[in-house]
Amino acid sequence: VPGRELEGIYAALEFLIPQNKEVQQGKANPINVKGKHVIVIGGGDTSIDVATVARRLGNITVATESDRPEHIIAGQVAHDVAAVSAREGAEVILVSRATIDKMNANKHEIEQALAEGIEIIGGVTPISVVKGADGRATALRVAEFEVVKGETIIKAGTERDIAGDLIVSAIGQAVDFTGFD
Q1: What is the separation, in whole angstroms, between the first and last Cα of the chain?
Q2: What does residue 126 show for φ and ψ, rounded to 5 degrees?
Q3: How far apart, in whole angstroms, are the C-alpha atoms of residue 7 and residue 43?
Q4: Backbone dihedral region for residue 100 (phi beyond 0: left; psi -120 to 50: alpha; all else: beta)
Q5: pLDDT by residue (tens digit) across 55-98?
Q6: Predicted local confidence at residue 82, as pLDDT
Q7: Is 86:117 a contact under the CB 8 Å cutoff?
Q8: What are phi and psi of 112, to 5 degrees?
Q9: pLDDT one-digit tens code per residue, 8-35
Q10: What does the DSSP 8-state code read for residue 39?
Q11: pLDDT tens digits, residue range 91-129?
Q12: Residue 126 burial (CB count, 10 A)
């Protein structure tokens, strides 16, 4: 979509597994960005992974003693990351072309994301990224659509902007099998 080259936009694997030189030098690491308003584009398991990681990394500023990971390791209490995320996580919205009931993600993963306070908006398609005065992505413009003879047709008057300071695209990956003859 137009605007995909703006700062503040990452691919799912860049977000989940940052490995480039900029990241290794402490720059441009999406994990360090810790967006307060994160938009994830997708509908499969990877999009749910991105959404839950973003939610958990987001704005958690006051973890109680029982929320700390060492309590899991010590076996003292069951760790309920969903409760912590729902209480203090980043605002995360997952947008999907598929409706929630038709998303490819495992149903229990979708339920877990919803339990953590992640909003899922199904049945919309991204149409552009909104550029802020600072040159960064500030929103994702989406619209309702229908597919006619394999072509996406935007429903007039359904366009809307979803504000976000971090946008992660989790719309599929392809494998390069070169050399695996």
Answers
A1: 34
A2: -65, 140
A3: 23
A4: alpha
A5: 877 655 555 555 444 444 444 444 455 555 555 668 999 999 99
A6: 54
A7: yes
A8: -65, -45
A9: 898 888 888 765 555 455 554 444 455 6
A10: E
A11: 999 999 999 999 999 999 999 999 989 999 999 999 999
A12: 21
Q: Are 93 and 40 in contact (CB under 8 A)?
A: yes
Residue pointed to by tokens 């203090």: 88
Q: Which residue has the tokens 């899991």?
A: 72
Longest Cα–Cα distance of the chain, Å, equals 57
| Per-residue tokens: 49 | 């992974």
Q: How many helices (H) and strands (E) does the chain have?
A: 7, 9
Judge whether residue 164 has pLDDT over 60. yes
Kindly report the three-state secondary structure assignment for every residue of 58-120.
CCCCCCCHHHCCHHHHCCCCCCCHHHHHHHHCCEEEEEECCCHHHCCCCHHHHHHHHHCCCEE
